[in-house]
Design brief:
This protein has one domain (6-145): Beta Barrel (Elongation Factor Tu (Ef-tu), domain 3). The protein has helices spanning 32-35, 113-130, 134-137, 157-168; strands spanning 6-11, 28-29, 45-53, 59-67, 76-82, 94-102. The longest helix has 18 residues, at 113-130. The protein is globular and about 40 Å long. By secondary structure, it is α+β, with helices and mostly antiparallel strands. A six-stranded antiparallel beta sheet has the order 1-6-3-4-5-2. The structure holds adenosine-5'-diphosphate and magnesium ion. Magnesium ion binds at residues 15, 20, 27, 29, 79. It catalyses: riboflavin + ATP = FMN + ADP + H(+). Residues 1-132 form the Riboflavin kinase domain. Its cofactor is Zn(2+). GO terms for molecular function: ATP binding; metal ion binding; riboflavin kinase activity. Residues 147-170 are annotated as: Disordered.
Length: 170
Amino acid sequence: MKSLPYFCRGEVVRGFGRGSKELGIPTANFPDSVVDNLPADISTGIYYGWACIGNGDVYKMVMSIGWNPYYKNTKKSMETHIIHKFKEDFYGQTLSAVLSYSFSSLFLCYLSPDDLIAAINSDIEEAKVQLELPEHSKLKEDNFFTSTTNSSPVSSSSAASTSQSIINGH
Ligand code: ADP
Ligand code: MG
């Protein structure tokens, strides 16, 4: 995928209460302005990379890019599970993420709930290992993550494409 690594940033918005948190796998949702800016070659699937909240520490993450059933699968969503235990929710804060690599996409919709949780947890374990490889771990140190104080979140669709190209051309 030529668009990887892909950098993105936006405000954490509420998802659609699919209860990820109850499953032990909360997923922070990006707003449409970020989702709509995804390059065409970033297809639906599971990605791994790095993420931080505000100016906080950079942690490993796994992200699901998928079709949103709430909108009858006409809209995509980007849901990020940060591999860290946070004391509090962070709705409304800025999430910065870099997508480093993609898993071969699984047909998750065919799985039972228990198998789905097991599949996601095995993806998380795999991501933890893969992200230690130099080609992925170097992104943790990228200055994208230290520049959050200087740039506002991508919050409007008109500003988004310019901001996105600045972010990825940094
Ligand atoms: P929603 O449907 O609103 O996305 P979730 O059950 O998926 O609800 O929970 C997501 C929220 O949980 C995030 O927006 C964030 O505020 C919080 N959260 C706490 N810990 C994490 C984490 N490790 N990764 C992602 N989100 C987390
Ligand atoms: Mg969620």
